[in-house]
Design goal:
Two copies of one chain form a homodimer. By secondary structure, chain A is of the alpha/beta class. Chain A folds into two domains: about 240 residues, Aldehyde Dehydrogenase, Chain A, domain 1; about 140 residues, Aldehyde Dehydrogenase, Chain A, domain 2 (3-Layer(aba) Sandwich), CATH 3.40.309.10. In chain A, about 45% of the residues lie in helices and about 20% in strands. The first copy, chain A, is built from 14 helices and 16 strands. In chain A, helix 2 crosses helix 7, helix 3 packs antiparallel against helix 7 and helix 10 crosses helix 11. The first copy, chain A, is globular. The mean pLDDT of chain A is about 95.
């Protein structure tokens, strides 16, 4: 695909320029994008109507159509998000460490952009500007490939912001939108390892598995969030209930919501009746329980083992009675997704054990898993959450879009 | 392959224990390994003789046989290297950053081991203990798969050190040696992404390309080191000659040796005659030159373009006359391998430009590329050099074998 290779080659070339661009310049490009978005709201909304009509004709669900829908307020929100990114500190050029050898050679480890990002995403058109802004601010070139449902919206947004930023001096190829949503093209893109340094997919598990399978480029991803709350025998019961309510009911469709509750057998007879009240009050759709749990809750249905790995994305929960913190940890490490898990206990040693041995990106003591988010973690912005262990783990902000190089300063040193 | 899967499962299980092992325990295991190596030198040398005889019968080169050969001094060296690793700081448990939210939630980012390493290497038997020690010290389980040439040596070393460390309390499965050097087994190992977190191959380019192609597990690698020296128009000529001599002749077979020299046209008429003298004196085997270079050196042979990407691993060099620092940078970014490149110049702005725009792991100003090495960089030890950009770039020490997790401390916080 010579056209695609040409896009990648241009992105690579611009990445070398972007790596050395000043913060002031990068911010100017983002402000130009924000202004252009607002000035061209009508064009964007017209394109969005095409996507909405096609989506309705294709029978997309109400939730899908809502994710796709733009209005003046949402376009304004996209522009404001671009302006907000200009206020964040530039992650490039930070001296991470330095070391001076006895022979005077100075070795500095300095943060630099990764290079060229490939960003593959589904239906929300605002991801187009969110991803572009975070990649640019961190000095990376980005190739955007949105989903077919938002094709017209993404093209309109892409055309507008790219033209505005290039007019403001952004190098050509720094941001590119692939105007082709075929599988062949995305598969070819995922093989461009000569030009692209990192692929970030954002969407459902199916999209992400396909990307991982096809890509010869490193991918940072999370498949799903199977998050656990372990109610220890020394738990404060009202606290555990509040954390459960927050984790399961506040926004059940997100990755840091709870899917499984593990309850120590010594506290179960006190805790389970309170939990049942909460479930009834909040209208939980279903609870799948272990044998022992089912003996304590007449509404529970016996859980098929595979459900312990389920991300319900709904007000459905898996519940299990365990006989120790060790059993809880083993369960989480076996069935969990390495995303976010929490223990409620008054015992600091049990909490320490749990935080050390649970092999997840974020491990909470007496707090809700819902905090796993770049914004909540003080990163300013989030480009995704990684359940991988290499390069970035947990919420990814601007800093996670950088790598480092060593700059070494000598006056003629040679190795003995 | 049920047996292989069993090995991987045990490694995964032990990794959870290793992650929380104390520095004192880990050091005890390493000291027990060192002692056992020395006490069993005769057994190791007997096994090594089998490999040497087979190697000689197979017609391995003298250099290959030398890499394979062990003697008392080399075994003592392996034991000393194990003892040395005990003196290095433990990279696990470091608080990398922390953030307290307004609601009092404390978010700590803490270094933790990556988990399970797969280490695939070629003929030097000492890599068995080097890799095991660095993985263990950083709290990782490791599955070792050495080359067939060193099979008997690796098995003897592995048996001795694993038994000694397990006797000293190391969890079973923390270090495993695969006793099967078939391609089928290594290919199956490279698919065990449920159990293994990271593959580090160490050997020739062919081995590494095969590993990358087959692996569904992230790989940190370097294919080759095509390192450049750019002699700027404002270079100090004696300094440039000293750095060239060090880079090309001190150890031409290593990855941080020089392969290409780029010379600014304004200094070429002064520099090239001196360089020719150096080449004659040091017995350079061959110089491949650009057209312009060839017009200045009657010994040079016109360079085929593909040679600019060659890692000669010998006293052979590529030479090119360039008209600017920009041309030098473009050449390096196009033909280089992202490993180590150096500029000699008295002009700080030219050096800064070069260090910013050359997209390599280590970029030197007025110093030899031969310093790219974990030991020389003050890392204490080196497990390899990465020309990848993600997770680790440049020399990799103990710290590069860790990742991080977030430990979060609350008192009932929920997300609003």
């Amino acid at each position: 695909m010579p056209e695609l290779e040409n896009i990648c080659r241009k992105a690579r070339k611009s990445a070398l320029l972007l790596a050395c661009a000043s913060s002031a310049d990068k911010n100017q490009w983002l402000l130009a994008m924000a202004k252009a978005l607002e000035e061209n709201t009508a064009t964007i909304l017209a394109a969005n109507r095409i996507d909405l009509e096609k989506g309705a004709a294709k029978g997309l669900s109400g939730a899908m159509l809502d994710r796709l829908r733009l209005d003046e307020k949402r376009v304004k929100g996209m522009a404001d998000a671009l302006r907000y990114v200009t206020t964040l500190p530039d992650p490039v050029g930070e001296e991470l460490s330095s070391f001076t050898r006895e022979d005077g050679l100075l070795i500095k480890k300095v943060s630099v952009p990764v290079g060229v990002m490939g960003f593959i995403y589904e239906s929300r058109p605002n991801v187009t500007t969110d991803a572009a802004s975070l990649c640019l601010k961190s000095g990376n070139a980005v190739i955007l490939r949105g989903g077919s449902e938002a094709f017209a919206s993404n093209c309109a947004i892409g055309d507008i912001v790219i033209a505005a930023a290039e007019k403001a001096g952004m190098p050509e190829g720094a941001v590119t939108l692939i105007r082709d949503t075929s599988h062949e093209t995305v598969n070819a893109l995922l093989k461009m390892d000569q030009y692209i340094d990192l692929i970030i997919p954002r969407g459902g598990e199916r999209l992400i598995r396909t990307v991982v399978k096809e890509s010869t480029i490193p991918v940072i991803k999370h498949y799903k969030g199977v998050c656990h709350l372990y109610v220890d025998k020394e738990a404060d019961i009202p606290m555990a209930l509040a954390i459960l309510e927050n984790g399961k009911f506040q926004r059940p469709g997100v990755c840091n919501a709870l899917e499984t509750i593990l309850i120590h057998e010594d506290i179960a007879s006190q805790f389970v009746p309170e939990m049942k009240k909460l479930f009834a009050e909040k209208g939980l759709k279903k609870v799948y329980g272990s044998e022992k749990y089912c003996s304590m809750d007449e509404n529970a249905q016996m859980i098929p083992e595979e459900n312990y790995s389920n991300e319900y994305l709904d007000t459905i929960i898996s519940a299990k009675i365990v006989s120790s913190a060790e059993e809880a940890v083993d369960h989480i490490n076996f069935y969990g997704s390495g995303h976010s898990d929490s223990i409620v206990t008054a015992n600091g040693r049990t909490a320490e054990y749990f935080q050390n041995y649970v092999d997840s990106a974020t491990v909470y003591w007496n707090a809700s898993t819902r905090f796993t988010d770049g914004g909540e973690f003080g990163m300013g912005a989030e480009i995704g959450i990684s359940t991988d262990k290499l390069h970035a783990r947990g919420p990814m902000g601007l800093k996670e879009l950088t790598t480092y190089k060593y700059k070494i300063y000598g006056n003629g040193q040679i190795r003995k």
